[in-house]
Write a structure and sequence with these properties.
By secondary structure, the chain is an alpha+beta fold. It has eleven helices and twelve strands.
């Protein structure tokens, strides 16, 4: 029994509703059948009372003049033209005198004249004792336990003078065919009601229960920390259940917004920590680096320096300056002033990266839409473009394709780099622009982070998306905002 209560609401509500309808239909059917049986019994008693009163008035003179034949004709008159199927038809009439002897009957062979009524059996003896209770002209019915007949007694009297009693016998089974016919009709009506109500109950039960089950499932997923739950089916009504759905949807949206804000805050805190670390490293590196560059510059000023030494000094100077540029890239908040971006800067990047693309037999589709000088820092834009293209070259399989487009749309510079490499996983997408997030075993994951920081300083941003058979990075930089 416990398992029935543990069922899902989508089954339990229609099931219990169906059981309730079945029980109700059964009780209504039984009540109708009992009512039909009671009506039949009342019809019998009413018919017997009417018959008894009618016959008693005509039998009194016959018994008074001891006219047995006349009495026989009177009690046989109701059976002329009678049909056995009539449920209110008497099976026999017996006229008794005051000594409980048979005066006359409709079945003389069974109940002969002058026979003692008690000798017909114990049921008749018991009835004879109970007939003594009949007073006046009142008609009474008797049901003797164990007997298959119903007895109705009508006194033959005129005033206080009583000559005998008319017994009207009815078979208990005579009304069964009519009762069964009534029960059959009641059963048919009950089945018709069930055929209409059960499908309606099942539909409305599931219509209400299925949304509750979905709501419970979604709440369980949220409790487990899963906020990207699928949308619930539409519930178009404004009752309490509809209000619950609306409140749940609002709660999910608020939780998603809170989760997004929390992730952004955590990412900002991590980026701020990395920025402070980079600033410390840059400070520590720049001090000795500046001293070494000063020493190299002093060494170059000596007139007696050997040409071979001068060549080595040049190599050292370029290496130290590259170290300085690397430190400046890490310290994106301290970027120096740069000249405006020109189409040649974009073409320089194309020229620099062509050898690496050729090594992997890549097809590099290049579309430079710049027509003139642009109010964006050339160094920063070049840095972003180089980082994204290097990542695309490393992510693309040998013989693959890379599309790079640079265009100006409504005073906004758009860089679009698409490669046909492997798609980015959902987990990597979540932390794509964080430090040290990389899919390469030899990478440090700082290229995208640096590019993202530069784009944010320039007032723009970077987005990544998985396209059919490709991965696309898009950079949008508003014009006229120098870092």
């Amino acid at each position: 029994m416990r398992s029935l209560f543990d069922l899902s609401f989508s089954v339990k509500i229609p099931l219990w509703g169906s059981l309730l309808i079945l029980v109700t239909a059964g009780l209504v059917g039984l009540s109708l059948m009992f009512r039909a049986y009671d009506d039949l019994r009342q019809d019998v008693l009413i018919s017997a009372d009417s018959l008894g009163r009618t016959l008693s008035n005509t039998l009194f003179p016959a018994m008074l003049h001891d006219d047995v034949w006349r009495a026989f004709e009177i009690i046989n008159a109701p059976f002329h033209g009678a049909t056995p199927e009539n449920p209110v038809q008497a099976s026999a009439l017996i006229l008794l005198d005051n000594q409980e002897q048979v005066y006359v009957s409709t079945l003389p062979e069974t109940y002969p004249t002058l026979a003692d009524f008690r000798r017909f059996g114990p049921h008749y003896a018991e009835l004879a004792e109970r007939l003594k209770e009949v007073k006046g002209e009142t008609t009474q019915s008797f049901e003797i336990e164990g007997s298959d007949r119903i007895f109705v007694a009508a006194p033959i009297a005129d005033g206080e003078k009583r000559l005998g009693t008319l017994l009207i016998l009815y078979s208990r089974t005579v009304s069964i065919p009519r009762f069964l016919a009534t029960a059959q009709r009641a059963g048919g009506i009950a089945l018709l009601i069930l055929a209409v109500l059960l499908p309606i109950n099942w539909y409305w039960g599931r219509r209400m229960a299925v949304p509750l089950v979905q709501l419970s499932s979604s709440m369980g997923e949220i409790r487990s920390g899963i906020l990207d739950t699928p949308a619930l089916e539409t519930y178009d009504y404004r009752d309490e259940l509809g209000q619950l759905f609306t409140a749940f949807s609002q709660m999910v949206e608020e939780l998603r917004e809170n989760e997004r804000m929390k992730n952004e805050m955590m990412q900002s805190q991590r980026l701020a920590a990395v920025g402070r670390l980079a600033a410390g490293i840059a400070h520590e590196v720049n001090n000795p680096l500046g001293g070494m560059l000063t020493a190299v510059d002093t060494l170059k000023q000596r007139p007696d320096i050997d040409p071979r030494v001068m060549k080595t000094v040049g190599l050292l100077e370029r290496g130290l300056m590259q170290i300085g540029d690397t430190v400046r890239v890490l310290l994106v908040e301290a970027s120096a002033q740069s000249r405006p971006l020109t189409p040649n800067d974009i073409e320089d990047v194309h020229t620099l990266l062509q050898p690496q693309a050729r090594k992997k037999l890549l097809h590099l589709e290049w579309l430079n839409g710049l027509a003139g000088e642009t109010a964006l820092p050339a160094t920063d834009v070049r840095q972003i473009l180089i980082n994204l293209l290097l990542n695309a070259i490393q992510a693309t399989h040998e013989g693959g394709r890379i599309d790079c487009g640079i265009s100006l749309v409504e005073r906004e510079l758009i860089l679009s780099i698409t490669n046909d490499g492997s798609p980015l996983s959902d987990e990597l997408m979540t932390h794509l622009f964080e430090p040290f997030a990389t899919t390469k075993s030899t990478g440090h994951g700082l290229g995208l982070w640096v590019s993202y920081q530069i784009a944010r300083q320039l007032g723009g941003g970077i987005t990544a998306e998985n396209l059919p058979d490709a991965v696309c990075f898009t950079v949008r930089l508003p014009m006229g905002r120098q870092a």
